[in-house]
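Let us practice reading a record.
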Amino acid sequence: MRTVRILVSGRVQGVGFRAFAQRQADRLGIDGWVRNLQDGRVEALAAGEAAAVAQFIEALRRGPLTARVAAVEVIEAADEVPAPGFVQRG
C-alpha cells in the first residue's frame, strides 16, 4: 500500500481535471480525494497498491485533453489514511 499527496500545476482548473482524476482513481481502485487550491493548482491524496498509485500519477501528468499540466509534485504521505473511495472536494 502506498499513499501520496500530489500537487499538479498548470492550466488544471476549470478544465474537468477533478472529474478526470476521479475517473482514473475509480478505474484503478484508488482511495482518496482531489480538490482545487486557491493558488490555481490541483491537490490529490491517493492511496492504493503501489502499481495503481504509479499509474494514477502518470494519468495526472497527462491530465484531460483540455488541461495543460506544467508540473507534478509527489510527496509520500504514509501517515495519511483516506476514507474508502475517491471523492472530489471543493
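A brief commentary: The mean pLDDT is 96.
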